[in-house]
Amino acid sequence: MPGMTAPARALGVALSARWEGVGEPFTLVESPLPDDLEAGEVLVEIELATVCGSDLHTATGGRPAPSPGVLGHEQVGRVIAVGPGEAPRCLDSTPVTPGLRVVWSVAASCLRCARCLAGMPQKCLHLRKYGHEAWDDERPLRGGFATHCLLMPGTAIAAVDESLPAEVAAPVSCATATVAAVVAAAGPIEPGARALVNGAGMLGLTAVAMLSAAGAHVVAVDPHPLRREQALAFGASEAEPAGNPVGEVDVALELSGATGAVQSCLDSLAVGGVAVLAGSVSPGPAVQLDPERLVRGLNRIVGVHNYHPRDLLTAVDFITEHHRTRPFGDLVAGRYSLTELDAAFAAVRRAEAPRQAIAP
Question: Coil, helix or strand for 196?
């Protein structure tokens, strides 16, 4: 938004960088902070947000989303108000009270439908996702690219330590928690297990760190030399270009969405091996599946989309313990204001870093 300046913000007023649709610049919009919170709602002042790849896909038309709306679903912030009644609790049972530093799930679930009751709240029949909702004049604060976010009932909330850098904490809401779900879906990681990670972007590097921390021998695969170098810094034992043979593996994680990478995961499984697919979130070509090999190999293929609330808690615990030993902070670049969101998205398109930071 060249030449755009932020207006002075009055007390009790929020600013949102509203997405107007594909090909349109972001618009800075003022809205009053709600003074009529409902039971279960939580108002958070955003400390820092990060631009996720899915935000870019939405903005460029790669994934459908209503417009106008507020994008952004990776952020860290501080609670400033809680709705009436009993205070919600964080995943570790900490009461949600003003002043608490928190991250929250990418979606809010009803907790009452058949899927929620079946243990799949991440696929709730009435799911609402931050950064994916249409603009609502009554409740506009539903995304991370704003000064505030109004959390809906059914949102998983996790407290984060004050010592955790904001650049490390913000991606936990999406990238880190998603990887926690992927690793959990693979089952217990045995020390010495051979693990393949296809795709060494933000998710892949996080997966490398989690698997190596569990004692696995990790083979990271990515076509880009810099990403392969980063994978070694995050604990990979080997880093190979796409297309190179990797041998048999006990665990194969696919986080890029590339058809060839999916095929490689399926073809690399050892007897008893499991493949977890999480990168294929857009339509693409089908891959070949040899059912006899699957049967005789006692293999499993698991899909992961969104994540269970428990995965958010796992992600917070992991990043708190390991952010000093792995260079997670290096994965977030820039420090853009809400008036510079177009420039931040341009930096993401140029792949300057896996994430760009937005400091409202």
Answer: strand
Phi and psi for 17 in degrees, rounded to 5? -90, 95
Q: What would the pLDDT profile of 109-134 be if each residue is shown by its tens digit?
A: 999 999 999 999 999 999 999 999 99
> DSSP letter string over 74-143?
-EEEEEEEE-SSSPPB-TTS-B--TT-EEEEEEEE--S-SHHHHTT-GGG-TT-EETTSSPP-SSS---S
* Cα distances (angstroms) measured from residue 264 to each of 253, 273, 281, 337, 352: 10, 13, 18, 41, 27
In a domain, 103, yes or no: yes
* Shared-domain flag, residues 39 and 134: yes
Could you tell me the CA-to-CA distances from 178 to 116, 276, 279, 324, 351 in Å, in that order? 18, 12, 10, 21, 21
Residues 195 and 154 in one domain: no
> Is residue 7's pLDDT more than 60?
no
Q: Mean pLDDT across the stretch 8-30?
A: 88
CATH of the domain at 85: 3.90.180.10
pLDDT digits (tens, 9 = 90+) for 227-278: 999 999 999 999 999 989 999 999 999 999 999 999 999 999 999 999 999 9
H-run or E-run covering 177: helix 175-185
Q: Is residue 202 part of a domain?
A: yes
Do 162 and 203 lie in one domain? The reply is no
Does a structural domain hold residue 193?
Answer: yes
Secondary structure letter of residue 172 according to DSSP: G
Angle between the 309-322 and 175-185 helix axes, to the nearest 10 degrees? 110
Residue type, 337: S
Does a structural domain hold residue 2?
A: no
**Domain span at 183:** 177-303
**Distance separating alpha carbons of residues 69 and 17, to the nearest angstrom:** 9
Amino acid at 315: A
Residue 256 DSSP code: S
pTM for this predicted structure: 0.94
